[in-house]
Design brief:
The structure is a homodimer of 176-residue chains. Chain A has 176 residues and is α+β, with helices and mostly antiparallel strands. Chain A has a single domain, classed as Arc Repressor Mutant, subunit A, CATH 1.10.10.10. Helices cover 39% and strands 18% of the residues of chain A. In chain A, strands 4-3-5 form a three-stranded mixed β-sheet. In chain A, strands 1-2 form a two-stranded antiparallel sheet. In chain A, a hairpin with a 4-residue loop joins strand 1 and strand 2. In chain A, helix 2 crosses helix 4 and helix 3 packs across helix 4. The first copy, chain A, is globular, with a radius of gyration of 17 Å. Chains A and B meet through strand 3, helix 5, strand 5 and helix 6 of A and strand 3, helix 5, strand 5 and helix 6 of B. Bound molecules: zinc ion (4 copies). The site of one zinc ion (ZN) has 4 residues of chain B, from helix 1. Chain A binds a DNA duplex (30 and 30 nucleotides) through helix 4. Chains A, B: Its cofactor is Zn(2+).
DNA sequence: GTCTCGCTGTTATTGTATAACATCACTTTG
DNA sequence: CAAAGTGATGTTATACAATAACAGCGAGAC
């Protein structure tokens, strides 16, 4: 690996997911947040919903609904597409997962609970997806849109390329 | 290029498509540019390819591949999905159309020929799509990505909301 | 108890996209 | 001209993504 771990924890937040981190926390913290949220909001955290959250949290990459469904099926939690889509809809609606339009796939949210406008950095080599925060109304584009009278309601910002690790590995090699 | 806006007061070129304009030019200029480009690049501008370009240019909205295919079928230009997808791939690859990931649909490019990084403003009410230009490497997000060592290769920026016309029409009414 | 509401299970269908292969047309070259 | 090569086309079939529709079950309300 020898990832140089530049800026240890310093400026992080914008590219969390590409950096080395204690990944066990990603899952446990995420699930804990989901449990708390559902308790507070009187929402039913069913086995399927929790399991899908765990599945997504376990990987910093976007997973297709059918890929998730395959896992659910193996575990006897469901076998038909609506099972997966309903759980994903629940998670997305409540801010614990996002859909990556570019990939027609879903990824766990990095800052669960709070409503926000995510942006994604997608590595085409190792398929990891990092979530960053955007301020769509700021920036040239947001200003131009506002000036033109366009009223932004939702944004899709997805950047595809090579993550630091895959860049270091060299353009030709890539990594699985 | 530098198409005269028949409507004054909008100095923005970033939201072209929402503004009033001589729409006949959108089609004729676009096709002309495509003809020139293909001649210069020694590419075959086949009937299907040109017709698909015309279809897209005729509307400032994203069209699904199967919607385009329906038109081609009526005109005897093709009846199977690959016909439409191949033409669309050709146009996208050469910069005369873009895919709007959010809609799984395609839209004609506003500045054909030149390689650029488009952003889209999508009106959820009237379904018009305007193309704006972005500088992904600038802005907070681009800077954050660069700082994190992420190498951007392609960007998807799609803003959904209400266009000026539909905002003026009032939130409740909308317009077809 | 029983009523209600939301989650589940399932069937079926629609929509989006591509693989694979044979054929055809044009162009290059001998 | 003929042969070979290249790339577009036509077609079949299939994979992948998403939703509609409806029956049944279960926990909480009253
Ligand atoms: Zn992690
Ligand atoms: Zn990578
Ligand atoms: Zn126009
Ligand atoms: Zn509109």
């Amino acid at each position: 690996m020898s990832t140089d771990m530049s800026q240890p924890g310093s400026d992080q937040g914008s590219s969390k997911g590409f950096e080395q981190h204690d990944h066990a926390h990603c899952v446990s913290d995420g699930v804990a947040a989901l449990v708390d949220y559902c308790a507070a909001e009187r929402l039913k955290l069913t086995p399927v919903r929790q399991r899908v959250a765990e599945i997504l949290l376990a990987e910093h990459r976007a997973m297709g609904a059918y890929e998730i469904l395959d896992i659910l099926r193996e575990e006897g939690l469901g076998s038909q597409p609506p099972v997966a889509y309903r759980a994903l809809d629940f998670l997305v609606k409540n801010g614990f997962a996002h859909k990556v339009e570019r990939l027609n796939a879903f990824v766990a949210c990095s800052h669960p609970g709070a409503t926000h406008t995510p942006a994604f950095l997608i590595c085409r080599s190792c398929n990891k997806v990092a979530e960053a925060d955007t301020s769509p109304t700021k920036g040239d584009l947001g200003r131009a849109a506002a000036a033109a009278g366009f009223q932004i309601e939702q944004t899709v910002v997805e950047l595809e390329g090579l993550c630091p690790t895959c860049v270091d590995a060299g353009p030709a090699s890539g990594q699985a």
